[in-house]
């Protein structure tokens, strides 16, 4: 019997690329989308069942888990990919935007993960792969709420990894760097931003990390490796050159020196050392709608 993976948020970007990667490797895939219009997005692929799911609706998670398991009789891997990106100065972000950020990226993810845990526990096998972000590793400006939600995902995953160890199951977190997924064209931007922030905001969106990214297939490959490498003791996986360099640079410089270099790069300008360490994606220009 082929293994089965559930992947959320698959209409485009990393989610769609991840569906294609698992199918290419011979897996059954249960893919989720939020809109009826996207239900046929994977119709050209064999062994894919596409279902509607709004991850914000926590009450829908138990029923969806049952429906997903019924598609192929079992689920071996859950990939929590669906996410929402709100950006802008914290001062200008609304309470509704902040709550929605955590509802999608944290509370909805937790609800769906909890719904699948009994299945993994009783079967004594299973892997949960959740997408965190490069921004959970370092404090980029104007994404403070987003990266707080992704840091919560990383911390949650570490604790869950240990909780699941007695059941031969595991939890992993993938930290994508910048990828060409239209994230900068679909984000929810804070409104009525005070003029005092504009110069720094413009400067941030002209930095290499906000201008170039890797293809979604890069992250999809890392997600697949996290799900299948048989290394339950490994929790963190880095996707893209701008992500992969972070743990190496932190080890080289130490936490405080690394932070000082990173902060300077996002305020007064990066040093020669930082420029030599910093990496961007594969040169693909990111689509923006600012």
**How is the largest sheet built, in terms of strand order?**
3-2-1-4-6-7-10
CATH superfamily: NAD(P)-binding Rossmann-like Domain
Strand content: 15-25%
Q: State the order of secondary-structure elements, H for helix, E for strand.
A: EHEEHEEHEHEHEHEHEHHHE
Low-confidence stretches: none
Computed CA radius of gyration, to the nearest angstrom = 19 Å
Remind me, CATH topology?
Rossmann fold
What is the rounded distance between the termini? 47 Å
Name the shape in a single word: globular
Major pleated sheet: 7 strands, parallel
Q: How many distinct domains?
A: 1
Number of alpha- plus pi-helical segments: 10
CATH architecture: 3-Layer(aba) Sandwich
Describe the structure.
The protein is of the alpha/beta class. It has a single domain (4-194, 215-243), classed as NAD(P)-binding Rossmann-like Domain (Rossmann fold), CATH 3.40.50.720. It has helices at 13-24, 61-72, 95-123, 144-164, 183-186, 198-204, 216-228, 241-253, 255-265, 272-277; strands spanning 4-7, 28-33, 48-52, 77-80, 86-87, 126-131, 169-176, 188-189, 212-213, 236-239, 284-285. The strands form 3 sheets. The chain has a 7-stranded parallel beta sheet, sandwiched between helices. Strand 6, helix 4 (144-164) and strand 7 (169-176) form a beta-alpha-beta unit. The longest helix is centred in the middle third of the chain and has 29 residues, at 95-123. The radius of gyration is 19 Å and the shape is globular. The N and C termini lie far apart (47 Å).
